[in-house]
Design goal:
Blueprint: E1 2-7, H1 11-22, E2 26-32, H2 36-46, E3 50-51, H3 54-59, E4 63-66, H4 73-81, E5 86-90, H5 97-109, E6 114-117, H6 124-129, E7 138-144, H7 156-171, E8 176-184, E9 193-200, E10 205-211, E11 218-225, E12 228-233, E13 238-246, E14 256-259, E15 265-271, H8 280-294, H9 302-319
Parallel strand pairs: 1-2, 1-4, 2-3, 4-5, 5-6, 7-10
Antiparallel strand pairs: 7-11, 8-9, 9-10, 11-12, 12-13, 13-15, 14-15
Helix pairs in contact: 4-5, 5-9, 7-9
Length: 322
């Protein structure tokens, strides 16, 4: 089993600690938190080993799980990589694109693997239909959240929308050629609600909306492609797949048939992919262990994390031009 240590024992850090402690692919060595009072409190409450020195923890493990505020991601990751340790790093990968690119370069140089915590890739609803999403030409996403002061230190694009950016980039195999976006600050000093329109070189268009001042939570994405409509509810973990095929010569009484202006008839039918219950955070951590052990590419690589960050920062930059 891989020896792992966690940096950061906040809300999400404690979840990672619990899951790594339960995992049969890792041995949890301990954790580091710069707040010694919080560190000792977590150690006393849960029994995990608290390290009061970050370098001592990094030296003691094979894998470093970075669950610290975004501003410290780069420094923590660099400390681990130069010591030859594999890194799992929460999203967004870093604060700047330059930092992300340097981490990629360092990881290559030191022959270590890295994965970014874009957890929606492991959402069972998205996993159930990902292979059915084939050359989508229009995508619409809504990620709305009730107000929570935690996370308001960054724009809503980096807090929420980046989940959908990563998911979209994973299914649209084309480069973004144009971005139009607007953002509004309502409560925070950075935008709390944002909308972005991404145009890809292959003609696909994605319209993304994110808000952290909504009255209800919603995390839905809709993918439109040739002869298919696929809806993913990340929150409720449900999917809807509506497909069309050429209508048969003889149709049944209950067949749903559409006829276009040219007289072509299409039959509408529904697919119900099986959605397997899982713990998405545990899955992302354990698939990273698999990637290390098999020397394969992690499902969400450092390059993937940098690509999502690049688009997110371009969306934020676009606010300033509108």
């Amino acid at each position: 089993m891989l020896k792992v240590g966690v940096l950061g024992a906040g809300h999400l850090g404690k979840i990672h600690l619990r899951l790594l402690n339960e995992s049969n692919k890792y041995t949890l060595i301990g954790f580091y938190d710069p707040d010694a009072i919080n560190g000792k409190k977590v150690a006393d409450q849960f029994g995990y080993t608290y390290f009061d020195n970050i370098n001592a923890l990094i030296d003691a493990v094979d894998v470093v799980d970075i669950v610290t505020p975004t501003l410290s991601h780069y420094d923590c990751a660099k400390k681990a990589i130069v010591k030859g340790k594999h890194i799992f790093i929460e999203k967004p990968i870093t604060n700047t694109l330059e930092e992300a690119e340097e981490l990629i370069s360092l990881a290559t140089k030191n022959n270590v693997k890295g994965q970014v915590g874009h957890v929606e890739r492991f959402n069972p609803a998205f996993s159930a239909v990902k292979n059915s999403i084939d050359s989508p030409m229009f995508i619409e996403t809504h990620r709305l959240a009730e107000f929570n002061p935690r996370g308001t230190d960054v724009p809503v694009v980096l807090d929420l929308m980046i989940h959908d950016i990563d998911a979209i980039l994973s299914v649209v195999k084309s480069k973004v050629k144009k971005i139009n976006a607007s953002g509004v600050s309502v409560i925070s000093k950075s935008p709390d609600i944002a909308n972005a329109r991404l145009e890809f070189e292959n003609g696909c268009v994605a319209n993304l909306t994110a808000s952290r001042i909504s009255l209800k939570n919603m995390r839905k994405s809709r993918f439109f492609q040739k002869d298919a409509y696929i809806s993913v509810d990340f929150l409720e973990k449900k999917v809807e797949v509506v497909k069309m095929k050429d209508a048969p010569e003889t149709t049944g009484d209950f067949d749903m048939i559409l006829q276009n202006a040219e007289g072509e008839k299409k039959q509408i039918y529904f697919e119900n992919p099986e959605i397997e219950t899982n713990n998405a955070i545990l899955d992302e951590l354990e698939t990273f262990a698999d990637a290390i052990n098999s020397n394969s590419t992690p499902i969400v690589s450092l390059q993937d994390g940098a690509a999502a960050l690049k688009v997110a920062l371009e969306i934020i930059e676009s606010f300033n031009h509108n």
